[in-house]
């Protein structure tokens, strides 16, 4: 049960920060997305985000910061195994599953539902 609470608190805090940025700044949601992914990459490369993931689990790995963390972690692993070329292939390998799932399920939802513009 403690894992659920920590995931909720960490994920909720990340979402709270995003909401505050949208409400209090002139940043667009797209720019906030880029800031979060870039922050995840930086914190992942510095191994700071590892501590957040240790306690927050899915609450830390699912949001955009987690995507950036996943990219950084995959690139570092691939560089250790392959060398310099891993800097270009690591991120693609690490994110391929999530991106493929998003495309697949997005396509299925587009087939099932009729979207309308506002």
Description:
The protein is an all-alpha fold. It has one domain (2-112). It contains six helices and no strands. The mean pLDDT is 90.
Q: What's the helix-strand series?
A: HHHHHH
Helix segment count?
Answer: 6
Low-confidence stretches: none
Overall body shape: globular
Structural class, please? mainly alpha
Overall tally of domains: 1
* First and last CA, distance: 40 Å
Q: Give the strand content.
A: under 5%
**What is the helix fraction of residues, given as a range?**
over 70%
The main β sheet shows up as: none
Write a brief structural summary.
The chain is mostly helical and 118 residues long. The chain is built from six helices and no strands. The protein has one domain.
Defining traits:
0% strand; mainly alpha; 118 residues; transmembrane helix; 6 helices; Stage V sporulation protein AE
Please render the helix and strand layout as text.
Elements: H1 2-24, H2 29-45, H3 49-56, H4 58-61, H5 64-82, H6 86-112
Helix pairs in contact: 2-5, 5-6
């Amino acid at each position: 049960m403690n894992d659920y609470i920590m995931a909720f608190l960490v994920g909720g805090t990340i979402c709270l920060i995003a909401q505050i940025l949208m409400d209090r700044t002139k940043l667009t949601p797209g720019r906030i997305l880029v800031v979060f992914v870039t922050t995840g990459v930086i914190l992942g490369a510095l191994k700071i985000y590892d501590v957040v993931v240790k306690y927050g689990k899915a609450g830390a790995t699912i949001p955009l910061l987690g995507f950036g963390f996943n990219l950084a972690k995959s690139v570092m692993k691939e560089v250790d195994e392959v060398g310099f070329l891993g800097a270009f292939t690591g991120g693609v390998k690490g994110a391929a599953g999530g991106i493929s799932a998003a495309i697949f399920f997005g396509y299925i939802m587009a087939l099932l539902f009729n979207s309308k513009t506002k």
